[in-house]
Each structure stands twice: as structure tokens, then as C-alpha cells.
Amino acid sequence: MTRRRTLAPALLAALLLVPLSACASSSGDSGGADGIEMMAGSPMSADAIGDGSYASEDAQVDAAGRSVIRTGDISIRVADPNAVAAQAADVAKDLGGHVASQSIDRGGDGSGAGASLQLRVPASRIDEAFAALAELGDVVSESRNTTDVTAEHVDLRARVAALETSVERLTKLMSGAATTSDLLEAEAALSERQQELDGLTAQLTALEDQIDEATIWVQLSSTSTLPGGPANFWDGLVAGWHSLVAAGAGALVGLGILLPWLALVGAAALVVLLIVRAARRGKRAVRGTDGDAAA
């Protein structure tokens, strides 16, 4: 019994040394390079995801187990877009989301005030977000969309998991390399796999962020007493001033167009007037000559 207990650790040590002895072979032996390539490129099935790899298990999936990206947009007519924009931002924050972007048009050009927001809320609470936003004013239009990215999500997670395993194996292989050539080759393969892993990890993170949080575009426009007109007195005053300036500029343009024609007509009228006067003078001179002859 004692002999078996002493042989067990020896056999285990021998089994662990087998991969290291293969790696320590000469560079002429095909075991070094081929072994590294096999370690670096070893495939991994999607079933291996989740056992210690990066792949997140928190990404939202629907009842059918699909990964979907939810988006939507809503257009609302309100009295004060600036104030309602702050309320829309509060809606997103109350639901555990945030404002990704926001722009406000205060209507300085007389076109009416407005605001645009991009909200990010948890995908599971998108219906609550639309219900809360609809209470801010009069809904003009609303739409929602879903995009199924299950295949892309599963593929990215499998590739990330496979590369993580490959990087781990190459790291162990480097620690047991016995020759400089094997070490350099393992370092090159490890650097390449690490770059691929970093790129795919960034893609997976961005995709899962879109899955976890829905995106809602909110368009706020001001109400107006006149269809398409200003919303209040000051906006009307500004619009009237701009219209007056535009009318004055248009009148100046029209005057500039007419000036050459007015000059031409004036010159022609002057020529005609001179001819008429010359004719009258000639007639008077003739009459004066006839009077003197009769006397």
C-alpha cells in the first residue's frame, strides 16, 4: 500500500513533464513550432463559454433566449422644450438610465424652440420609459424597433473564450520553453492572440452594452397659436423683426434690379424731350421768319 502511494506522485509528475519535454526539443524538430500553433489556434466550442472566461452572463435576453437590441423614437409637442428636456432626462435617470446626448434650439431664428435627446435606459424598462415620456406633452409620433443579434452575440462570446484559452496556454508554454527560438516564437504568437482578444473584447463589450440598454431618441417641439408660427409674444416679435429685415433686403434687391432699366428709360425720355424741344424751336423760328417777310 505504501509503495502505491509513493508511485502516484511520481506518475503525476511524469505526466506533467510530457508537454514541457516536447516543447524543449530542438528547433529542427517540428514539435516546437507546430505545438505553438496548435496551442494558439486551438478551437473552442460555444458550450465552453461561461466557465471563467470574459463572456458576460448579464446581457439581456428575451423570453426565447434571444439577444436583441431595442431602439425607439418619440416626437412630443410641448409648451417649453427647454424645461421638458430636463424632465425627460429625469425620466431616464429614474429608470436607471442616462442621457447620451442632448441639443436645444431656443428658436432665435424665429422658427420656434425645440430640443433633441438621446436616452439610454435598461432594455427591460423601455415600455416604462415610453409611458413616462408620453405624459410630458402631446405625442405626435412614436415608433419602436428590435434587432435580433443572437448569432453575432454567441459568435463573439465563443471567439473571446477561445482566444482567452489560447492566451493562457501560450503563457504556460512560454514559461516552459527551453530554447530561445521556442520562446521568441511563443511570444510572437502570444502578442498576436492578445491583440485579437483585445479587439474582440471591445466589440463584445459594445454589443452587450447595446443589448443591456435600449436607446430612445426624443424630439421635443414647441406648440404654436398659429400653425407653424411662433409659440409666444417674444417669438412673434422676433419673427416680425426678421420678416421686416427680410422685406427690406428684398426691396433693396428689387431696386438694384430696376436701376439699370430706370436709367435706360430716363435716357430715352431725355432724348425724346430734346428732339421735341428742338422741333418746337424750329417751328417758332420758321413762324418768325414768315412774319417778318409779310411785314
UniProtKB/TrEMBL annotation:
Transmembrane segments: 252-276
Keywords, in A-Z order: Coiled coil, Membrane, Signal, Transmembrane, Transmembrane helix
Signal peptide bounds: 1-24
Domain named DUF4349: residues: 66-272
Coiled-coil ranges (or none): 153-210
Name the UniProt record assigns to this protein: DUF4349 domain-containing protein
Statement: the UniProt record of this protein carries the keyword Methyltransferase: no
